[in-house]
Structure formats: C-alpha cells, structure tokens
C-alpha cells in the first residue's frame, strides 16, 4: 500500500524536524521555571532567566491546540532566553504550524544555533522566498531540504513550480512526467497539468489532466475541479458539469458544497506557482494523515508490531505541512478543513472551531465547513447552535441525506424524539430511491421510537435493519434485549443474543443482555455468571448492576442484591432505571430487609467503583 511504503520516511521527517512536544519541553525545563538565576544546559552553556509566565502560557496553548497563541508565548519566552535552543525551536515550530510570518526570522535564528539548520527551516526559508517572488532562492532552499525522504517525495513538485515561475514550464513538465515507479506519479502528473494550465499550454494541460484522471484512484478534489474548469474553458460545459457531478455523487460530504462548486466551475483552483507549492504541502499532510489513520486501525486490530511514530507525531507532522500551505495560501479551505479535523481528533474542539470559522463564507467549500461546525457544536453540547446550522443546511440542500441524518442525531440528543423520527424518516425516504438505505438509519429511528414508547415501530425498524445487516451485533443485541425487557418470546430473544455474543464475545453489553434473558428464563446459574462478568467489565453501568442485584435476589442472596442496588443508585442512573432500582429496594424493605430500609431513607450512595470505565448498554 502507498502509506506503508511511505512509513520509513516519516521517521526521518520527524527526527529531522524540531517537533518536540510542549509537554516534553515543560518537563525538560521545569527546573528552569523555578530558577531565579542563570543556569547551565547539558552542554554546559549558560541560559538566562526563563519567563515562566510566557512559558506556562505556551504550554497551555499547545495543550489546547492553539498554535498561534502558543507561538506568541514561546517567542516571548525565547526572547527572555535566546540561547535556550529548546525554546527557540518550540517558538519556531509553533509559528510554522500557525502559518505565522514570524516563523521566517525564527528560521534564521534557529539556523544560526549549533545544529539548528534543519529540513524544516530550509522549507520555511524556501517558502518565504517563494512568497517574495525570489524563485531562484526558493529553489536553493528547497534543495537543501531534499535529503529528507518525505521532502524528497514532494521535491519534484516544489522544484517544478520554481522552474515554472522562472519561465521554464516545459522543463518543469518534463521533469514531472518522466518520473517512473513512484507512488506519487498520479500527483506528479496532476501538478504537471496544473503547470501547463498556468503557463497557458491548454492542449497539453488537457492531455495531462486526462492522464492523471486515469491513474488516480477514485476522485481527487483538486484534479476534478481543475479538469472541470479546463473542460469549461474549452466550451465543453456538459462534460465539466458531469465530471463534477460524478465526484459529488461519490462523496456525501462534498455534496454539501455541490451548488457552490458548480457555481465556481470555471475557476481554476491553482492560478499561480505559489498556490501550486501550497497544494504540494497539502498532499504531504494528507499522506501523513492517512498513515496515522492506517496505523490506528492496525494498532486497534493488533496487527502492528514494528516501532512506529505515534499518532500525535504523525498529526504534528501533518499540521506542520498544513502550516506551510497556509503560509503560502492563507485562504486554502482544504488545508483548514484538514487542520480542523486533526484538531478535533486531538480533542481541541475550540481550536477546530476557530480554524473552520476562518474559511470565508464565499469559499465554495463553506457549506462543508458549516457542517463540520455543526458537528463541533453538537459534540461540545451547543445543541441549539448545531440544530440551527443543520436546519439551514437542510433547507439549502433538501435532497441530501447527510445533513438530515445529522439533524436527527442532534434532535435525539435534545430528546426531541418526535422531531428525530421525522428527520430519520426523511433521510430514509431520500435514501430509498437510490437503494442506499443504511441499516444504521433504521437503527437510529428505532431508538427514537423506543424512547417514545412506540415498541411496534421500534421493533419493525430493528427487524428491517437486520435484513440489511443480519450479522450486526448491535442490532441483534438491541432487538434481543428489548424483547427480554418485555418478556416477549424469550427463546427467540436468547437466540438473537447468542448470535450477537458469538460475533462479539468481549462485548459487556451483550453479555449483560444474555445474562438477563437467562435470569428471566429461570437459569440463575448461567445468568449470574454472565452478569458478574458484565459488571466486572463495566462497573459503572447502573443497569448492569441492577440486573445483577435482581439475579442475586432471585437466588436468595438478598444482602448481596441490596448492596448491588445501592451501588447502582450511586451511579446516576437514567430516570427509568432509577425507578426500577428504587422499586427493587422498596420490595426488599417490605420483606423486612433493614439495610434496604436504611438506603430508602438515605441519600443515594456513592458507588465505590473505578472511574473512567466504559458503560452503557447498546440498546435503544
């Protein structure tokens, strides 16, 4: 695979850069913050006073994903101690990530330090020369960075754009199209086409766009927009619109911007060498990002045993490349969208929102940014704002499934079950003619019906979803457990749940469901065994603890049952579960259990269980 072949280059990119996380810098200089006088580094050099306020501000800003504030604070700390290489490097890296012009003087300062000349500083100075129009200097600086394998991969594109800017488009195109055997050949060909287009070599540009399209797996946004603009310029408007429409049909997120992308179809995304260089950096960020995601999947599946950079390092490197891109083209929406995605994955929702808000409303990709903002609002509890944005997107694109589905999720989070059902029903109606009904849509609607107390419709949706995904454990569990709750056809419920646990044997929610259905069938031995296992896995799930208490009670282990219900009460159960727990305690108290009486007249006990354990049943 492409990303596996790129992996060894990431080690060198990361080691050659100055990507020392701020937390590491904090640990390395913790003593400095508390020192009132000069001190020595490991090499014996004298450092001056550390501006502890600026340094701590920088650490907090880095932790929050705010690169611009972190850069400013690190610069202030470095100004107080300019011989501290760690501070200078951190100020430099954060300035680069923020796309801050102050990265340029810091690159010169960093290069003047012993061992400070790095691949990153060479790229920064090359980009600065490009912005100033000094393309020969840009080419020289880029050449200095070419020793790094990752930089080496994009170096042909950087140098080709330098050549194009100096009037040597033919040489630039030849250099890119003669490369063989590289995983990036489709992208080299695309950049050759873009260079030909900028140089007004229209026929050659068309041939190269067509060649790149044949080599490119799937749809590439830059290629599709550029090729569509080329068709439009040739008077082939139908081909242009069909090409763009095909991409939009294949990508439901980009489809949100369909109207805007069609309206700007005649616009070439890359109109200058500077914008071309920025796109090369976005490509690098994308490759690093994909490697990070691939590694995460392999790690989760236990398939990766090699020493590898961690996800944070990959994302730091991606953000660095995006900082380069935005320094060259501050209005590049694709770079901001990718940056916001990384920030969101790192838990920096506030920083992600700020990044998205910097995408102008006039940009064709503004609806995608608006959708991402709505999701960010929903994930941070700003449900009214999310609902407002999604309603607007639904009104603007009433035939798209994605915003309607997201609106249903937001309404469910607000416990507006009637509204959620209407939204999911609309999404299902839109998907049905396309034969694109997703089982999860039916599952989500079944959850809303369940909360409304409409079991017949909830059950019908779960059964319809199982037709589409007969081996989906969450569906089998939901239907089986819901039937067990109602004591409805318990043998069939058990059959569904045994299928579910065979497919997902480590799932505590399924184990609890199967344990409960066995208890309801009178098999207390297996039921208690399963419920105890589920409680060990999810000790903070009040429903599991309630079930285990009920099983103990039926087995005559009354004291243990009351203890279990007491724990369940302290876990802040949902109102329905709390009512069941209190009813169980009342039943125990009525039978003469003194401990149950005391619990009834006391405040709910705090559960003595480990924090941070996953909980919750996978049921509607």
Q: SSE layout and pairings?
A:
Blueprint (H helix, E strand, L loop, with lengths): L1 H15 L5 H7 L1 H4 L5 E2 L5 E2 L4 H12 L3 H14 L4 H13 L5 H10 L6 H14 L2 H11 L3 H17 L3 H9 L7 H14 L3 H14 L5 H13 L3 H14 L7 H6 L9 H28 L10 H18 L4 H13 L3 H9 L8 H14 L3 H14 L4 H13 L3 H15 L7 H14 L2 H14 L4 H13 L4 H14 L4 H13 L3 H14 L4 H13 L3 H12 L5 H16 L3 H7 L20
Antiparallel strand pairs: 1-2
Task: Describe the structure in your own words.
The protein contains 34 helices and two strands. The chain has a domain at 52-299 and 313-334: Alpha Horseshoe (Serine Threonine Protein Phosphatase 5, Tetratricopeptide repeat), CATH 1.25.40. The chain is mainly alpha-helical and 620 residues long. A hairpin with a 5-residue loop joins strand 1 (39-40) and strand 2 (46-47). The two termini are 39 Å apart. The protein has a two-stranded antiparallel ribbon with strand order 1-2. It is globular and about 95 Å long. The chain has helices spanning 2-16, 22-28, 30-33, 52-63, 67-80, 85-97, 103-112, 119-132, 135-145, 149-165, 169-177, 185-198, 202-215, 221-233, 237-250, 258-263, 273-300, 311-328, 333-345, 349-357, 366-379, 383-396, 401-413, 417-431, 439-452, 455-468, 473-485, 490-503, 508-520, 524-537, 542-554, 558-569, 575-590, 594-600, and strands at residues 39-40, 46-47.
Question: Largest sheet, described in full?
Answer: 2 strands, antiparallel
Note the beta-strand portion: under 5%
Structural class: mainly alpha
Number of strands: 2
For the termini, the CA-CA separation is 39 Å
> What is the CATH topology classification name of the domain at 52-299 and 313-334?
Serine Threonine Protein Phosphatase 5, Tetratricopeptide repeat
- CATH architecture term of the domain at 52-299 and 313-334: Alpha Horseshoe
Task: Just give the CATH class of the domain at 52-299 and 313-334.
Answer: Mainly Alpha
The rough form would be described as globular
Low-confidence stretches: 1-48, 604-616
Helix content: over 70%
- Overall pLDDT confidence: 84
Region (Disordered): 591-620
Keywords: Repeat, Signal, TPR repeat
InterPro entries: TPR-like_helical_dom_sf (IPR011990), TPR_rpt (IPR019734), Ycf3 (IPR050498)
Pfam family, one: TPR_16
């Amino acid at each position: 695979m492409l990303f596996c072949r790129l992996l060894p280059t990431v080690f060198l990119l990361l080691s050659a850069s100055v990507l020392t996380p701020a937390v590491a810098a904090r640990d390395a200089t913790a003593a400095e913050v508390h020192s009132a006088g000069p001190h020595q580094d490991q090499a014996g050099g004298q450092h001056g006073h550390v501006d502890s306020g600026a340094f701590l501000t920088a650490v907090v800003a880095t932790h929050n994903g705010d690169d611009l504030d972190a850069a400013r604070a690190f610069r202030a700390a470095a100004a107080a101690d300019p011989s501290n290489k760690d501070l200078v490097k951190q100020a430099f890296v954060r300035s680069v990530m923020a796309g801050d012009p102050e990265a340029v003087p810091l690159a010169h300062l960093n290069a003047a330090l012993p061992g400070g000349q790095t691949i990153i500083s060479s790229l920064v100075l090359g980009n600065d020369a490009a912005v100033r129009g000094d393309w020969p200097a840009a080419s020289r600086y880029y050449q200095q960075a070419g020793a790094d394998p990752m930089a080496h991969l994009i170096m042909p594109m950087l140098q080709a754009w330098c050549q194009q800017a100096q009037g040597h488009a033919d040489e630039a195109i030849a250099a890119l199209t003669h490369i063989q055997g590289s995983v990036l050949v489709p992208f080299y060909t695309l950049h050759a086409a873009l260079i030909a287009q900028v140089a007004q070599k229209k026929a050659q540009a068309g041939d190269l766009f067509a060649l790149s399209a044949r080599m490119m797996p799937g749809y590439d946004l830059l290629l599709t927009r550029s090729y569509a603009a080329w068709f439009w310029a040739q008077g082939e408007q139908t081909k242009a619109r069909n090409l763009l429409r095909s991409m939009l049909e294949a990508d439901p997120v980009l489809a949100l911007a369909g109207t805007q992308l069609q309206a700007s179809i005649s616009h070439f995304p890359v109109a200058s060498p500077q914008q071309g260089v920025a796109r090369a950096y976005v490509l690098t960020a994308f490759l690093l990002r994909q490697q990070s995601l691939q590694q995460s999947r392999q790690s989760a599946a236990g398939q990766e045993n090699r020493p590898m950079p961690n996800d944070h390092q990959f994302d730091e490197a991606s953000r660095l490349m995006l900082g380069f891109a935005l320094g060259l083209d501050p209005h590049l929406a694709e770079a901001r969208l990718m940056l916001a995605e990384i920030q969101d994955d790192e838990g920096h929702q506030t920083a992600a929102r700020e990044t998205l808000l910097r995408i102008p409303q006039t940009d064709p990709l503004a609806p995608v940014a608006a959708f991402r903002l709505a999701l960010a609002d929903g994930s941070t509890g700003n449900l009214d704002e999310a609902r407002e944005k999604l309603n607007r997107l639904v009104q603007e694109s009433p035939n798209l499934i994605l915003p309607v589905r997201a609106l249903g999720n937001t309404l469910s989070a607000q416990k507006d079950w009637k509204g959620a059902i209407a939204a999911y029903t609309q999404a299902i109606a839109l998907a049905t003619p396309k034969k694109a009904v997703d089982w999860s849509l039916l599952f989500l609607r079944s959850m809303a019906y369940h909360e409304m107390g409409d079991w017949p419709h909830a059950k019908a949706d779960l059964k319809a979803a199982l037709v589409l995904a007969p081996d989906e454990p969450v569906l089998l569990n939901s239907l089986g457990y819901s039937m067990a709750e109602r004591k409805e056809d318990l043998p069939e419920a058990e059959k569904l749940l045994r299928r579910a646990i065979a497919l997902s044997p480590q799932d505590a929610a399924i184990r609890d469901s199967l344990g409960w259905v066995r208890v309801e069938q009178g098999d207390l031995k297996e039921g208690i065994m399963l419920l105890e296992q589920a409680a060990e896995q999810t000790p903070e799930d009040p429903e599991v603890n309630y079930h285990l208490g009920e099983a103990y009670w039926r087995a005559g282990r009354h004291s243990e049952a009351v203890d279990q219900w007491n724990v369940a009460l302290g876990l802040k159960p949902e109102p329905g579960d709390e009512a069941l727990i209190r009813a169980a305690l009342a039943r125990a108290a009525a039978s003469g259990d003194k401990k149950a009486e005391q619990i009834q007249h006391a405040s709910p006990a705090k559960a003595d269980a480990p924090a941070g354990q996953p909980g919750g049943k996978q049921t509607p």
